[in-house]
């Protein structure tokens, strides 16, 4: 680890970031955000945002925000105090604001304690053979496509499929529903973008209705046919917490199943596709990892550091505070830029170099009270996929750079064409 240097001071011009944000939203910026992150960092560890609040670019400052008790997630209370209340009252936005990631203590602590460590060692060991078998099936399919056509798209065939099959089976959702779940989650996520347009919010609102209908039915069906699965366990727990209020129990159960599904799909799919892209675009790199499988976990962490599936997350100041030397009043919003932080040269030397043996630091799974609950599962999926893929497809390589959905917050790779 390199020493974390002194944090740099602020600029005051709120328009300074506008051209950089524009570049981040462009095709070129999505394909390679690294130069823009570097320019943002050069503006300071905290950079004023045009609409008020700040972007946080430095590793140490981002880490302080994510871990600090004086930084809270923007919840309903914060939204009500904003000028633009219409924006926050959008149905798709409200739906997400009720979920774990937008709760603060004491509600957050209450729900998080009830969930416990979702993917402890025993659970992962139980899931491992199923996931490995599914990887085999997906790679069989990839092989058939490659044999038939010479090329194949990794994203729809494997990258998008493994996460939904993993989390779907874990929650006991029948496989026939997976295409529908993938479809509405891709559409719902617009509402979580930084500045969604009206039409994007309308798309999200429609997807939210479908999502609510699906997960409400799932909970009701499982309540009628309880088993020994994770969702049946949650139903027993929340029914006991709210013995006289079935509606409150059902609301919490819906929020949890919906959010955990949505949180696990695109994120893990992006990790899996990025891993294949970063490793196979350089045949020597893939070959080296095949000969050194003991470094698979290091490779996964370098992929996570290099191109985080979530690019931005927000917090607000619970009280007047100072961040990287900049005084911030209570309620000030800050946007943590995970990618800029992960590429901070004060934390990771030569950050633009993809180096499997780096053992660097990253904030890709967040930090503190909201640290990702699915990191161990995502890592397991990536490990099982890479282990089989590198063995079975030693000459796999991309034929073009990946394409990305037009988003800034939730990165989604829409296509990665490969051949052997
Ligand atoms: C590569 C894959 C993934 C990435 C990059 C990722 C990233 C993140 C990030 C950045 C956060 C917010 C942390 C913060 O606010 O400090 C988060 C929260 C969360 N993630 Fe993940 N995630 C991934 C996979 C998963 C999976 C597979 C699941 C579940 C099966 C999951 C469940 C959650 C949950 C429930 C939270 C909310 C935790 C809370 O607010 O207390 N994630 N994740």
TrEMBL record:
It holds the Pfam family p450. It is an enzyme of class 1 (oxidoreductase). The keyword Oxidoreductase applies. It comes from the Bacteria. InterPro entries: Cyt_P450, Cyt_P450_B, Cyt_P450_CS, Cyt_P450_sf. Its EC number is 1.14.-.-. Belongs to the cytochrome P450 family. This is 6-deoxyerythronolide B hydroxylase. It comes from Streptomyces cyanogenus.
């Amino acid at each position: 680890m390199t020493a974390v240097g002194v944090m740099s001071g602020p600029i005051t011009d709120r328009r300074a970031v506008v051209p950089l944000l524009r570049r981040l939203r462009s095709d070129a910026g999505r394909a390679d955000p690294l130069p823009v992150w570097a320019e943002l960092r050069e503006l300071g560890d905290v950079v004023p945002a045009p609409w008020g609040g700040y972007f946080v670019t430095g590793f140490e400052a981002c880490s302080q925000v994510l871990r600090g008790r004086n930084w809270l997630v923007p919840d309903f209370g914060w939204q009500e105090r904003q000028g633009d209340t219409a924006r926050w009252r959008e149905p798709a936005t409200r739906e997400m604001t009720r979920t774990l990631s937008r709760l603060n203590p004491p509600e957050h602590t209450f729900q998080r304690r009830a969930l416990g460590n979702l993917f402890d060692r025993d659970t992962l060991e139980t899931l491992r053979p199923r996931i490995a078998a599914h990887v085999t099936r997906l790679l069989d399919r990839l092989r058939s496509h490659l044999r038939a056509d010479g090329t194949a798209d990794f994203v729809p065939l494997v990258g998008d499929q493994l996460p939904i099959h993993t989390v779907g089976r874990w929650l006991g959702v029948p496989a026939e529903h997976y295409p529908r779940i993938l479809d509405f989650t891709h559409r719902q996520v617009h509402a979580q973008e930084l500045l969604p347009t009206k039409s994007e919010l309308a798309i999200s609102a429609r997807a939210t209705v479908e999502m609510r209908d699906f997960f409400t039915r799932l909970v009701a069906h499982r309540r009628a046919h309880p088993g020994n699965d994770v969702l049946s366990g949650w139903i027993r727990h929340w029914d006991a917490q709210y013995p006289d209020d079935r509606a409150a129990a059902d609301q919490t159960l819906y929020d949890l199943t919906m959010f955990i599904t949505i949180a696990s799909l695109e994120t893990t799919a992006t990790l899996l596709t990025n891993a294949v892209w970063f490793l196979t675009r350089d045949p020597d790199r893939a070959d080296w990892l095949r000969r050194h499988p003991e470094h698979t976990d290091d490779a996964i962490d370098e992929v996570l550091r290099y191109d985080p599936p979530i690019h931005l997350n927000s917090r607000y100041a619970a009280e007047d505070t100072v961040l990287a030397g900049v005084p911030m009043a209570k309620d000030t919003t800050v946007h943590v830029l995970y990618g800029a932080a992960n590429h901070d040269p004060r934390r990771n030397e030569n950050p633009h170099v993809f180096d499997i043996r780096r053992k660097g630091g990253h904030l890709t799974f967040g930090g503190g009270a909201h640290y990702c609950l699915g990191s161990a599962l995502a890592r397991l999926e990536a490990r099982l996929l890479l282990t089989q893929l590198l063995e079975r497809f030693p000459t796999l390589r991309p034929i073009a750079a990946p394409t990305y959905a037009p988003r800034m917050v939730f990165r989604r790779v829409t296509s990665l064409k490969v051949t052997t």
